[in-house]
Fold Transmembrane protein.
Amino acid sequence: MQINRLPPKAGYIWIRQGIWLFKQNPFTFLMLVFLYIFIMQLSMFIPLVGIIVVLVFNPCISVGFLTAAQRVILRQTVKPSIYITAIRELPPAIRMRLFKLGGLYTAFVLLISLVSSQFIDVEKIIPLLTTGEMTGPDLIQEMYYALIVAVVLYLPIAMLMWFSPQLVAWQNYSIRKAIFGSWLGFWFNKGPFTVYLCTWALVLTAVPLFVGGVFESLGIKQYASYLITPFSMLAITVFYCSFYAIWKGCFADSAPPITTETTTSI
């Protein structure tokens, strides 16, 4: 498996490809992302265990979503059951490997949660977590601090896990080899990833804050969610769609392909 080294501008191209892919079947991708978010919220009703189950299945969900992207490109019908059918189609040994990868991912996430709790004052941000409202500059500062800590701690995990599910499912790599390959793919393309992640950070944080500020200045901040919520849902869906473009861009001969028509269309 050859790993491509791409210029920084590839990060912007990935986003454009994600937009192109989303436009091929917006309803399907919105449905898949909504289903994933719904499952995440549903897991909250089972303290700790629910979250752990979702984390363990995260690599399988990743493979399912990217399989859906493949089939949309091939003009095939995609159903919500793709999260299950995509895994069922894999050999039992690979399925088991994905579950083990999910267990490792869960351990990583729980570890950074414990570490981050030593730096973040959760009691200060409870008002935002429970009501969605910022009550003052101290809370805003605490939220930004918590976000920075979370990003710094999660980034190494992202590097190890970004490509691992695909390498296990589609290239039949061992867990160790997949994690190493994921790290190499991320590191060799740190320029594009910097452009890509910074652009999405700006879109997903600055835009909602700006819209919220405008609505608050007009004295109608209670209506801001009617604009911010659909925008965030749309942006997150395009964000997920761009994952397939990243996979194709970083790994040569990695099936299934984005067609020539796809590339020229963007």
Q: What stands out?
A: Confidence is low (pLDDT under 50) at residues 255-266. Residues 10-265 form one domain.
